[in-house]
């Protein structure tokens, strides 16, 4: 086990107070850390587990405006999300890409005129939309109708985006680190109090149990499902704002249909369920909306949710789906702002930023709600709220057009980046080249390095995962465990055997003590 000296680096201000102490290593926390560090602020981010280990890796993995939110008159949120969709497609083209969605029409759900109106608004709410517009489909002639049962004659197609959600979090943390932020995973906020106009916080290394006291001018509470606990129990701050926890679960089954399109399916209860191509060989199905009142740390799908999702898909597809078909499932708790809606599906997906100063004392900003698509804009809004307290944050915003690590694919885009990697490492097969660029973009060349053969890539752990890739993930992306690597970094968990995972586990124990990524 690493000592505290090995585990902790000095605070970015050389031991003095930092401008921002960010609590939470999900998409909102890392997004704020990146934005603030890029404006010149000193930032320390602490995350009690791995980056994106909870809500931010348990999404439906969409970058979307939220078509169904129009039904609840969330026009501002949808417009902002659609604008952000365009920006994210530009700054992370390796891990975010367009996807076409097929919406079958069933008269028992929403009327056709409502769907047409909603899709028209979806195409026109935001300026400068680049993705293909909505169109009507005749399933008797369209290839999109082949997997569907014969009762469905027509529908619509529209555009949105797909994201590798946990990688988006990691890339924001990497860029924050490159700009001077201190990112500490497996580090828990124990307590925080205001002392002499600043926050004094006790943080704990969960590996060693060692505690350190740090001081910060501003405390940012991006605790996600733990936002209320951080606010009231660890920082002892009272607030009228409440979080509402809603569990969302997903299942993965063998591929239900060919083609790159996804399906958005309307249920009799007015909820919608997505069926999305996943990891080449599978279909991802989700999500549910279930009120959650237990602790948010360990969340699993229930048998009832599995049945619900299987029945939802089986209403539409020729091939029925049963619980026996499920090869993997995951669940997460969404920390929504409590707007007192009676139905969990109707709770707003918009975010609320609450600044507490208790007079003129050190400010604390708490984040309620939010969604992956709008994380970058949420971070900008958070910075704007903190500008009166930290003049350094008044520097111009910059994140809208600066690519995330690996996103500089070149003028020939993704395919060009794949071709360049293949030229650099002709011993890699085409599928492995594709996967490395899809995960790491231009950083894939750093993983390959000077290797001239597969033997040079080191030990193989199945599905093309090599020791070189593992070493990169430990050195650059805070990966420490087999689960970090297989499920939140490489996304190979569905492709490796138990024996492969056991060998990877042994390799990590033998070769990699707990380490802090270095700036390249």
Question: Could you characterize the architecture of this molecule?
Answer:
α2 packs parallel to α5 and α9 packs across α10. The longest helix is centred in the first third of the chain and has 17 residues. The protein is globular, with a radius of gyration of 23 Å. It is built from 14 helices and 18 strands. The N terminus is likely disordered. Strands 3, 4, 5, 6, 11, 12, 13, 14, 15 and 16 form a ten-stranded mixed beta sheet that branches. Strands 1, 2, 7, 8, 9, 10, 17 and 18 form an eight-stranded mixed beta sheet that branches. It has 520 residues and is an alpha+beta fold. Helix content is 29%, strand content 23%.
Low-pLDDT runs: 1-13
Query: Based on CA inertia axes, which overall geometry fits?
Result: globular
Mean pLDDT: 93
Measured by DSSP, the beta-strand proportion falls in 15-25%
State the total count of DSSP E strands: 18
Estimated structural class: alpha+beta
The number of helices is 14
> Fraction of residues in helices?
25-40%
Rg from Cα: 23 Å
Distance between the termini: 25 Å
Give the biggest sheet: 10 strands, mixed
């Amino acid at each position: 086990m690493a000592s505290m000296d090995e585990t902790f680096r000095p605070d970015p201000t050389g031991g003095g107070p930092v401008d921002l102490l960010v609590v939470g290593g999900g998409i909102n926390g890392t997004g704020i850390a990146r934005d603030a560090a890029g404006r010149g602020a000193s930032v320390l981010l602490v995350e009690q587990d791995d980056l994106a280990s909870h809500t931010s890796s348990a999404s439906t993995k969409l970058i979307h405006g939220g078509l169904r939110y129009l039904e609840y008159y969330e026009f501002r949120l949808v417009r902002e999300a659609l604008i952000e969709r365009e920006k994210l497609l530009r700054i992370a083209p390796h891990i975010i890409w367009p996807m076409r969605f097929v919406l079958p029409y069933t008269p028992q759900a929403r009327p056709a005129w409502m769907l047409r109106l909603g899709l028209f608004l979806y195409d026109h709410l935001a300026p400068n939309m680049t993705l293909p517009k909505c169109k009507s489909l005749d399933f008797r002639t369209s290839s999109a109708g082949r997997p569907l049962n014969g009762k469905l004659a027509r529908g619509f197609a529209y555009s949105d985006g797909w994201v590798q959600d946990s990688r988006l979090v990691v890339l924001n943390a990497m860029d924050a680190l490159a700009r001077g932020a201190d990112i500490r995973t497996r580090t828990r906020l124990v307590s925080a109090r205001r002392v002499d106009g600043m926050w004094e916080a006790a943080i704990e290394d969960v590996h060693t149990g060692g505690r350190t006291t740090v001081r910060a001018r501003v405390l940012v509470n991006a605790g996600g499902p733990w936002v209320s606990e951080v606010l009231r129990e660890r920082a002892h701050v009272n607030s009228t704002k409440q979080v509402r926890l809603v569990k969302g679960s997903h299942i993965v089954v063998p591929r239900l249909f060919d083609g790159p399109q996804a399906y958005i399916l309307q249920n009799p209860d007015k909820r919608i369920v997505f069926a999305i191509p996943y990891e080449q060989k599978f279909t991802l199905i989700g999500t549910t909306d279930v009120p959650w009142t237990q602790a948010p740390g360990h969340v699993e799908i229930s048998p009832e949710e599995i049945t619900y999702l299987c029945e939802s898909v089986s209403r539409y597809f020729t091939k029925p789906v049963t619980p026996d078909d499920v090869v993997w499932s995951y669940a997460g708790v969404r920390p929504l702002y409590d707007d007192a809606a009676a139905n969990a599906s109707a709770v707003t997906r918009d975010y609320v930023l609450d600044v507490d100063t208790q007079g003129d004392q050190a400010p604390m900003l708490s984040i309620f709600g939010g969604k992956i698509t709008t994380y970058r804009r949420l971070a900008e809004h958070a910075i704007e709220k903190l500008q009166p307290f930290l003049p350094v944050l008044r520097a111009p915003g910059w994140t809208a057009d600066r690519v995330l690590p690996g996103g500089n694919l070149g003028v020939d885009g993704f395919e060009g980046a794949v071709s360049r990697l293949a030229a650099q490492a002709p011993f890699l097969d085409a599928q492995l080249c594709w996967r490395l660029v899809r995960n790491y973009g231009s950083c894939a060349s750093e993983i390959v390095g000077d290797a001239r053969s597969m033997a040079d890539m080191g030990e193989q752990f199945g599905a093309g995962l090599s020791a070189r890739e593992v070493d990169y993930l430990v050195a650059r992306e805070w990966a420490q465990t087999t689960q970090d690597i297989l499920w939140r970094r490489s996304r190979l968990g569905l492709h490796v055997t138990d024996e492969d995972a056991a060998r990877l586990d042994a390799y990590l124990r033998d070769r990699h003590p707990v380490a802090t990524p270095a700036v390249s």
